[in-house]
Write a structure and sequence with these properties.
The longest helix has 15 residues, at about 170-184. The chain has helices at about 15-25, 85-90, 95-105, 120-125, 140-145, 170-184; strands at about 5, 30-35, 40-45, 55-65, 65-70, 80, 110-115, 130, 150, 155, 160-165. Strand 1, helix 1 (about 15-25) and strand 2 form a beta-alpha-beta unit. The model has no long low-confidence stretch (mean pLDDT about 95). The protein starts with a strand and ends with a helix. By secondary structure, it is of the alpha/beta class. The strands form three sheets. The protein has a seven-stranded mixed β-sheet with strand order 5-2-1-6-7-11-10, sandwiched between helices.
Length: about 180
């Protein structure tokens, strides 16, 4: 059974972890969640409420990390998923995670990223010359990383599939699964 890695941490968006986790299990993949340490992760729920200029944040699900980043063997996985939320803001500083993500790009393996997840691929210099989408507030960050930003439900650039946020899940996962099937 092919394995897919999800890299995340505390304050990740609940839906952006749990939806791909369950959808990929449904497709028959084995899915591991890796974080800075093996522990019970605390996710958050980002929502949009009238009168707020940006999203709001509330406590979300808790879920155990299967592995610490230091335990991950990237060669054991056919693809990686990078959820959003606030987690990518601090995870991009983790040298173990940067090594993991770089290995997926170096090995030309599929990568799915959503919302604030592209902050991680930007941190390893893997967005230069690519077309991506992300949470719209990150447009300038994506451009600063050398990417062409597109405000779209999903953008496919080779084996990199990006999406804006959890309302785009069906389009994002449909495109990612096409990439996974084509890659074999």
């Amino acid at each position: 059974m092919a394995k897919i890695l999800i890299v995340t941490g505390d304050a990740a968006e609940s839906l952006e972890v749990m939806y791909p986790y369950q959808r990929l299990l449904e497709e028959g993949y084995e899915v591991d969640i890796a974080a800075p340490a093996r522990k019970q992760l605390r996710f958050v729920v980002h929502d949009f409420e009238p009168g707020f200029d940006t999203y709001t944040e509330k406590p979300g699900y808790t879920w155990p990390a299967d592995l610490a980043f230091s335990e991950v063997d990237p060669g054991a996985y056919v693809a990686v998923v990078i959820p959003g939320g606030r987690a990518p803001e601090y995870l991009r500083n983790d040298p173990e995670l940067r090594k993991i993500l770089k290995s997926f790009f170096d090995a030309d393996k599929p990568v799915a990223q959503i919302c604030h997840g592209p902050l991680l691929t930007a941190a390893i210099g893997s967005l230069e010359g690519r077309r991506v989408t992300a949470y719209p507030a990150l447009e300038l960050d994506m451009q600063a990383a050398g990417a062409t930003f597109q405000d779209s439900a999903a953008v496919v650039d080779g084996l990199l599939v990006s999406s804006r946020a959890w309302p785009d899940h069906p389009t994002w996962m449909r495109e990612f699964l096409k990439v996974l099937r084509a890659k074999g």
